User: Fold this.
Amino acid sequence: MQKLLLTAILALTISSSAFAEKEFMNHTSLMDHGDGHFMDMDGGMIMGQNTDTLPGGCDKIAATEEITVHAGHKYSEKFPGRMYAFDIQEYQFKPCTKLTVHFINDDNIRHQWMMHGLPKYLYPKGMFHMELTGPGKISGTLIFPPNDKTYLVHCDISQHMEKGMKAQLKIGKGSGDLPSIPGVTANVIQDDYSDSIPEKDVKKPMTAKEKKAASAVAASENESVISGVLIIGLAAGLVLAPLLSKRFKGMAVGEIVSAIFEMIAKGIGIVTKLIMGLIKIISPNKT
Assistant:
C-alpha cells in the first residue's frame, strides 16, 4: 500500500512539473555548432548567424541596428480570428545593415522568428532562424544583402504562421507588399460566412425610400381592414335589424339584455362544437 501511494505521488509530481509554466530564461550560453548554428539544451537556437561577413555587393556595413521582437498569443488579440502574432508586423532597413534581433517568447510554447530567401553562399539554406521553447529571450545577428527586397518573417511551427505569426521585412525600398500580413495587407482568401446563413434569414437594411413605401402600404392595409370590418358590421346590422326588432318587440330592457346574453352563449356553443368536429376529422383516433 505504501509503495502504491509513493508511486502515485511520484507520478503526480512528474506530471505537475511537466505541465507547469516555465520560468523566463535568458539564453546567453549557446554552443557553437559551426556555420552560424548555435543552440543550448534549454530550447534556444540560432541558425544562420553572421556578425562580420559582408554579403556580395556590400562595400561596408551601412548601418548597425537593434530591434526587440515579442512573440505570443496576446499580440493576436487585435487581429480577429488569429491565435498567435508578433508585436510588430512590418520592419524596414537600409541595404547592408547589420541587425541584431532580441527575440522574446512570451508564451509557454515554442515560437520562432525566421527569414527565408537570403544568399545561400553566406546563409546556409538561405535562412536566418531564431527559436525559443517557452518564455525567454535570445539574441542573434545577421547582415542584409544590398538589394531592394521584401522578406517574409514568420514562425514555422505547424499552423503558427497560418494563425497570424508573420510579418514582412523590407530592405531598401522593398519589392512590394506580401499578402495576408495581419494589420498590413489584405488576406489572399478573405473570411466568408455567407454560405452558412440561410438566404431567407439574410435581411438587407431598408433605404429611407423603402421604409416610407412600407409605411404607406401598412397604413393602407390598416385602413382597408377597418373599412372591411365596418362594412361587414353595417351589412350584418341591416340584415339582423328586422329579425332582432321582432325578437325583442314588447320586451323590457332587462329582458332584452338577458336575451342577448343567451344568444351569445348559444353562438359560443355552436362554434365550439364546430371546432371539436373539425379536430376529430383532422386528427381521427388511432386504434
Observations:
- Residues 214 and 285 are 46 Å apart (CA to CA).
- Residues 208-247 form the longest helix (40 residues).
- The chain has three domains: 22-195, 216-247, 248-287.
- DSSP finds three helices and 13 strands in the chain.
